[in-house]
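quick one, 236 residues, struct below
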Amino acid sequence: MAFRRSFDSLAGELGRRRFLTGALGSAVTLVSVSRMFAATEFWNAKDPSTWTEDEIRTLTSRSPWARTAVPTFKGVDDPLEASGGGPEAGGRGGGGNFRRTTSAPNLIIRWESAQPILDALRAPLAADLAGHYVLSVTNLPVANVRPASRGGEPAPDDALDRMQSGATLQAKGKDPAEAGIARRTRIGSILFGFSKDSLRLTPGDRDIFFRLDTGSMTVTAKFDGKDMTYHGKLAL
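---
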């Protein structure tokens, strides 16, 4: 299966792009969607080598480790307005209040460091992400990396810096952890790494929130540690 190849290869990268495009088309609301699949939970009942393409798509797009969310934009910085999107009926709203847009994209927030996701995609994380909870956000409406300067040095990735500064991971009753790592993937997703030393999560953490605030956009996804078990162990 193409999307299960390592993304270090072009075939693997393109395969994952096609896979994610299909996954984004199967949006679900931010409820505990894992309970929809509790009767089967094939990820605990079957060996990963026997998972079907549909099962992998379910696991990586609408499972305890993957959530779909719609970003909220603020003011004139909404990138969708410039490309033809607009505010919801009732006007722009005043005072710089956050609002949804009619054409805001569905984002997938996924726990990339969780073992079932690693088993599904068969794409190991980079070595410097060890010891981190790693979450990805796919389909973010953000600017691409600016071209290199005339001297050949890569230009600062200001958008990525803002996203890293605005990314947090928090469990109810615990202090939030800030992202220590942020990077772009070849297909345009953003990876955020949170040190496990800064946030100790347990199966008892029922409300785990990932939040990204860039100043002009916010998005939040909720996870439940109780549901994120893989072969009897918490998989984060």
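The CA atoms of residues 85 and 103 lie 6 Å apart.
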